[in-house]
Amino acid sequence: MSLSGLHDRRQTASSCTALSTLVVCFLALGWLPQLGLADTYDIGVYLFKDASCLFFADEFLLLDNGCYANIWASNSTKAYKMNIVFFNSPQRIDMREYSDSCHTLAMPKRTVTTGTDRCSAFHGSMYAQFDIRFRSNTCKGQLCSNLAIAVQTFYSASFCAGPAYSIFRYPVQGECLRALNGTQNLLASSDDSNITLKDFGGSDKCETKTKDVRLQMFSITNKQCYPLYSTQAPRSFGWRVERNVPYAAASDAPRSRPGMSAFAVLLIAGIALFPTCHSEAKHW
Q1: Within its chain, how far is the Cα of 72 from the centroid?
Q2: Is residue 234 reached through a cis peptide bond, with omega within 30 degrees of 0 on the bond before it?
Q3: 238 bridge partner residues
Q4: Is the peptide bond before 254 cis (omega within 30 degrees of 0)?
Q5: Each residue's pLDDT tens digit, 83-125
Q6: DSSP secondary structure letter of residue 248
Q7: Whole-model pTM?
Q8: How far apart are CA 113 and CA 60, in angstroms?
Q9: Phi/psi at 42 (nearest 5 deg)?
Q10: Of 193, 162, 199, 62, which Cα lies nearest the Cα of 122?
């Protein structure tokens, strides 16, 4: 064999090997992100009655950027939001308080830091410690979130077709949320087939203790499309319940890694695409 022919065969084999590797990498990159499509983080709150965080009062989860009613000091502010702003340790969360349904700031935002060694003012006379919870089916350990949410999606077209016009997310464990003219809560049925929405018009605490409160109840079918406007967008909307069930607590690993069988499938797929390349390599 001539030196030029030998050089050509080496160059072909090298190119094919590189191309096969590149294809396998693209296959893997196209598949791996599917593991974490619905992964997100929620905020864990440990509520206390004192400034030293010694006398425990309650524990609950907050949806990041959810608009909650200030049920502890409604005479001071009407609503609050919490947003995770720094995920590395020490993690930080911004808190904002509003005089309405999370549109008008009542005071400058303040930032709290997670950790059991910190005791931060919450609302009214309440104090709290915070952490960040990973919400995913692949989560393991104590810092996993089981928060269920309802996703309300509006569509430009009828019959819930086409791209979304707007999307809103709400927790569905009966949390008291701030609404335009009062408060409301949402509760999913045990099988997630139905969502019950209670609107407390004129109430700051999702209560009906006074005669001025106007209670309205709505029954919403999960994954059903509802018509809206006929001549303008949005023309339809629907609700769906999203509920991740974390693995049993075994470790604090945030997510599982793909098994060797998955990588084998990807490798075989890459090899099968280039039989000519392998033939060249064999004869060389």
Answers
A1: 26
A2: yes
A3: 153, 225
A4: no
A5: 999 999 899 999 999 999 999 999 999 999 999 999 999 999 9
A6: P
A7: 0.74
A8: 17
A9: -120, 175
A10: 62
